[in-house]
Design brief:
3 helices; ten-stranded antiparallel sheet
Length: about 170
């Protein structure tokens, strides 16, 4: 897909990109060959069509320990999304049972909140939301109750983080 990369030093590169969900890599096409971004920690963000991706190192001493996140809300507080898949190995034939090919199985989507330069924090329940947004706890708590926000509903989380950023 058409996209662009902005590096942390401000350089922009346009081209064809794709996100490999299984390998958690951004790949790009150059002169007919496919490559992946070898140093994702040098990228500010990667845009593929209408999706924006960022990369955060889990361990600052080893850049291969990070992950790509899709940005759902930009601002002082970002709402990030990670989806993944697992590979279920092929099963050989058994007596009276046909073989089964390897298949991909979707993992549950995960949502994260990232404030400032802190590492993204996973949110899976309302308590996680209140803990991560504790600097405006009263307003956030009232918004969650009034709008019946679920920590697992993408659209509701987008509304919450947009509200938080507007405070």
């Amino acid at each position: 897909r058409e996209g662009s990369v902005i590096t942390k030093n401000g350089k922009k590169y346009n081209g064809e990109f794709r996100y490999d969900l299984y390998a958690d890599q951004i790949e790009f096409k150059l002169d007919g060959d496919v490559y992946w971004i070898a140093n994702p920690e040098l990228m500010e963000y990667i845009k593929i069509e209408d999706k924006l991706f960022v990369y955060y190192d889990k361990d600052l001493t080893d850049s291969k320990q990070g992950f790509y996140y899709q940005v759902l809300v930009m601002g002082e507080c970002k709402l990030l999304y990670r989806k993944g898949i697992n590979l279920k190995e092929a099963e050989p034939a058994k007596p009276y049972v046909d073989p089964k090919p390897a298949t991909f199985i979707d993992r549950k989507p995960l949502y994260y909140i990232q404030k400032g330069i802190a590492y993204p924090q996973k949110v899976s329940k309302k308590g996680d939301l209140l803990e991560n947004l504790s600097d405006k706890k009263q307003e956030v708590s009232a918004f969650i109750k009034k709008n019946k926000i679920s920590a697992t509903n993408k659209d509701e989380l987008i509304d919450l983080i947009e509200y938080y950023n507007s405070l």
